[in-house]
Structure formats: structure tokens, C-alpha cells
Amino acid sequence: MTRLGFLALLVALVAGCARPATRSLLSRGTFLAVMGAYGPEMAANRAALAGTNAPVHTWMVNGVRFEHHRVGVHDVLLFPSGVSMVNAAMTTQLALDRFHVSHVLFAGIAGGIDPAHTIGDVIIPDRWFHHSEAVYANPSPDGQGHVLPSYFKPPYENFGFIYPDHVSVIRDGMDKAEDVPSFGADPALLAVARKATESLGPLRWSSRAARVHVGGAGISGPVFMDNREYRKWAYRVWKAGCLDMESTAIAQVCWANQKPFLIIRGLSDLAGGQEGLNAADFTEVPISAHAAAVLRAVVLALPGDKATP
Known about the structure:
Strand content: 25-35%
Oligomer: single chain
Helix content: 25-40%
Radius of gyration: 22 Å
Number of strands: 20
């Protein structure tokens, strides 16, 4: 064999080895993908699902640690979404590209904006909206309203110069992108959640029993929301139970990939509805545990064919 021929063969062999190293993750079975955004949420989810058991296997992909845990009859892929919309979307898509994922679950904390709920309660919305996809508009010269671009027909009430909008999305089977107002959680997972939470043990916060609510709307945007007036407006517009920084991004990626999802949020704070300092710094650990307890009940209530190869 000539030197040139040998080098060509060597390059081919290296390339052939490199591709399976990336794609080998796809051959390791089918997983329930489970996320939390950051440390306290991940710790609570890991403790609820795996206790002190070490992962069956771990992978590092693009800096993200993916852990394989066996939970009941399920193979669970536990990993952090990262905080905020871009991180959550990027990491969710990374998981779907690299692993066989049947369903996507998330458990973590959020701000409560529905006056009917308070800190410690757990919300499982059936649909998710963006609240920060928007036009930021100049005031009209006459002082009446704002100058809006000709293409834009406001679908919602504005908050000052902020005019929220739908997001334009596309997926397989569509000829062109369409404006979509919200992304729906999987009906079957919602049904499992309703049944699982009926038999869940009591969750307590301070001196009261915390409640678990399945249904209604959730909203997300790339801001830590801690403003009383914005909170009132957001609830008036979307009638949402909670507001966070990741969920709608995850929901949108699942919609685009046609993957069923369910998102569980414990209310760590009132998103600006409180007097004084936001409580999230003090409640993130115990309320993450509330969401994780509900997550565990849902995972264990899922039939085995939801996750196993």
C-alpha cells in the first residue's frame, strides 16, 4: 500500500470511529427525559428519583452532564436545562438529537401570579405561552397610544410600550411557519398527573397544606420577574398560574419535535406580588422538593412501556 493510500485508509477509519462515538448514545435504549433548570432543582429531582444511588451511566455532551438512572420500571435521563429560554431550548434539542427520548418532563420552581395560589403550591399547566415575544413601540406623536408596525395586529392587551405577540413556528408536515399562541402539554401525561397527585402524600409549607393544581396556563420569558404591576397585567392577559424562565421554550421544542411533555412547577415566590424582598432565595430548596415529589409520583404512575426499549 502506498503512503497516500495508507493515509486515506487511516482517515476513513478515524472518521468511521468518530461517527459512532457521537451516535452511540442513540443505541442505549429509550428514556424519559427529566430536567431541572439549575442546582436546587436538579438536586431535588435527583434525590426524589434516585435517592443516593449513583447513575447507571453518565455522558458529557457539549458541556452538559446527562445521567441515566433506573427509576421503577423506567430509564430516566436526568440533566439540567440551564436557566432561561435559550439555554432551555438548546439543551432540550440536544437531548432529543442525541438520545432516544419518549417523553419530556421538567420539575422546578416558578413565580405564582394567580392570586388563588401561594408559595408552596404546585402547578402543572396544560398549556404554555410566551410573555416576552413582543413589539416594543414608540409613543404616538399625539400622545395617544403607540406607533405600531403595519404588519402587527396586537393579539393581547399591552403593558405600556410592550405589546406581546405570538411566536412563528414550523415543524414537519407544515408548508410554512405559522403564528402559534401556546403549546399544549400531553393530555395523557396530564391525566396521569391528575390521578397520581390524588394519592400523593401531603405537601406542607409553613403552617399550611400546599395544594397541587393540574391545568390552566403557564407563561415564560427571559426575565426574572419581580414587578407587582407586570404580575397583575400578566395574570389578567393569560390567566396563568405561574411564570418562569424556561418552560415555554421547552414546550416549543417538544412541539417542533412532536414529543409529549409535562412541566411541574412549585411556587417559590409571588413574582413581585410580595412586599419587600422576593422570597425565592429562601424557598428555592424546599419548594424544589415539592415539585420533585410530584415528579416522582408522576414517573412511578407511568406505565412501563412509556420509557423502556
